[in-house]
Structure formats: C-alpha cells, structure tokens
Amino acid sequence: MPLCVRRNRPREIPVTHEPPLGDEPQLPINPQVPHPARIYDYLLGGKDHYAADRSAAEETIRRAPQVRESARANRAWMLRAARYLARQGVRQFLDVGTGIPTSPNLHEAAQQISPDCRVVYTDNDPVVLAHARALLSSSPEGRTAYIQADLRRPEEILGAPELWATLDRDRPVALVLSAVLHFVRDEEEPGRIVAAFRDALPPGSYLALSHTTNDIQPRRAADAAAVYGERRAAALMVPRPLDQVEALFDGFEVVEPGVVQLPHWHPEGPVRPRLLDEVWLYGGVGRLGGG
Ligand SMILES: C[S@@+](CC[C@H](N)C(=O)[O-])C[C@H]1O[C@@H](n2cnc3c(N)ncnc32)[C@H](O)[C@@H]1O
Description:
The chain is an alpha/beta fold. The chain contains twelve helices and nine strands. It has helices spanning about 35-45, 50-65, 65-85, 105-115, 125-130, 130-135, 155-160, 160-165, 190-200, 220-230, 240-245, 275-280, and strands spanning about 5, 90-95, 120-125, 145-150, 175-180, 205-210, 255, 260, 280-285. Strands 1, 2, 3, 4, 5, 6, 7, 8 and 9 form a nine-stranded mixed sheet that branches. Strand 2, helix 4 and strand 3 (about 120-125) form a beta-alpha-beta unit. It starts with a strand and ends with a strand. Residues about 1-25 have low confidence and may be disordered. S-adenosylmethionine binds near residues 37, 97, 124, 150 and 152. The site of S-adenosylmethionine has 21 residues, from helix 1 and helix 3.
C-alpha cells in the first residue's frame, strides 16, 4: 500500500498509542499546542489527545455544550455522505483533513457499499500520521493511501505522486472537506483552495463539504471558537454564515437538499428537533458537470 510521508520540521517529541508505520520515523508532535485533530478526538470520546487539547476542548464545551453533539453529528454526516457518494457510483475519494482514525473511517463506509473504493487521506497533524496504519487497512479489492500535507497548499497534495498512483485521473473523484475549512482564515482564501482542487478533478467529480456556522447562536459560537485563539492552538476556528459556506461550492451543482444543517442532510432516521439547536454545522454535496 502506498504511503507518502512529508517531513518539514525537525524531530521533536514522538508519541503514539500504536507502533510506527514500518520503518517510518515519527514526525514532530508538540503536546503543548492544542491541535484541531486532537480536540475533535476528545469531543468524539477518543483517546488520542494531550492535556492542552483536553483543556481547550473542555473550555469550548463549557462555553457551548453543543460542540460535542456537533462533532458527533459531523462524523455521522461524513459517513452518510461517503455512503451516498458510493451509491451514486463514486469509487474514488480524496479526504482532506482526515482526522485521527475513528472506526468506521471513510473508506470503511464507502467500501461497505462497494469494496473496490479507493481513498487517499491527507492531514497536517502528525498524530494522524502516527495512526495512519488504521487508515490503510483497505478491503482487498480497494486501496488507500495517506499523504501528510497542508491543505492551504493544495498544489502539494495535487502534485503528490501517491495521489494519482492511487486514484485514476480519468474517473470521478469525491473531494471530502469535512469540518476542515473552518480552520482556514479568510486571508488564506478558502474559496481559492477549493477552486484549486476543483480545477484538478475529472469531470463528474463531487465535493462533500461540512463547515461550522455562527448562524444558530452567534454569541456562543464566537465564544467557543475564540478558545482556539486564546489557547494559541495550531489553527484558529472561523465559523461562517450559510451564504459563505454555499459560496465554497462555486462551480459545483449542489444536490438535494442543498447546503443544510447536517441532521437535515439525507437523514437515515427521524431527526430529533432538539438536534437542530445543537448542531452548528452546515454540509452539502455538489457535483461537477461534464461527467
Ligand atoms: C474537526 S477535524 C475533522 C476530521 C474529519 N474530516 C471528520 O470530519 O471527521 C479537522 C481535521 O482537519 C485537519 N486540518 C486542520 N487544518 C488543516 C490543514 N491546514 N491542512 C490539513 N489538515 C488540516 C485537522 O488536523 C483535523 O484532523
């Protein structure tokens, strides 16, 4: 199975609950700096986080208890979107901002529908790399790969040899940006980043995107998001209103029911009304014409 490891920084504090991948040396991890991947892991009830991550996560929960429900709803949406896309015939996925593996991962959901699905995962947190083995346990018919990279430099992901060695350039790809673009500041131009990926995707490709919003309880959302800045986390959190999230689908035809609060997107059971107060994320799926 292909594995691409980028090393940009010197070795620091190696830490993992799993053995390293083969002979791959560990990438630097700074446990003092709260990181979005580990805060999210804590919110989901995982075990891969440090005191600084736990403390930042607890502070967001104190300011907005909804964040935990939002994280769970996001993970559930991402898996629903993967199954939906596989049912549409998509067999190739590029998941950017993968997160620390939490079974089922995206490839497990997609391969449940069609075992030949291929998934390339990418994230900038070295802790995700330390667990990449869990992301690489593909079905025999499918395939997975992992690229350590920063989505703010899409050209590095698009230029990584492992990407097109794993996925077929001539067949549609689903680009998955699940709960990651709210870690990109306005001046880093999230729209430009999505457009760079879009322009490299084959016709008939898809975008599945979810994003935190401040529309539902603006003050609380701003208070909770501010924790990332106050704690000098590895990235700031930027909740955005619906029109700005919709604008990220520029060039894609958004499928029904549109960009909506996550529980409303192709629910697989009844939606508890209360959930709509608690889930502060929008999500949707768009399709590129021409396929
Ligand atoms: C909230 S988690 C979402 C994980 C997963 N996509 C999901 O929806 O369950 C956000 C992920 O995005 C990653 N991330 C944040 N900024 C990133 C960047 N600039 N480049 C790559 N990954 C990034 C974090 O490391 C983290 O794993």
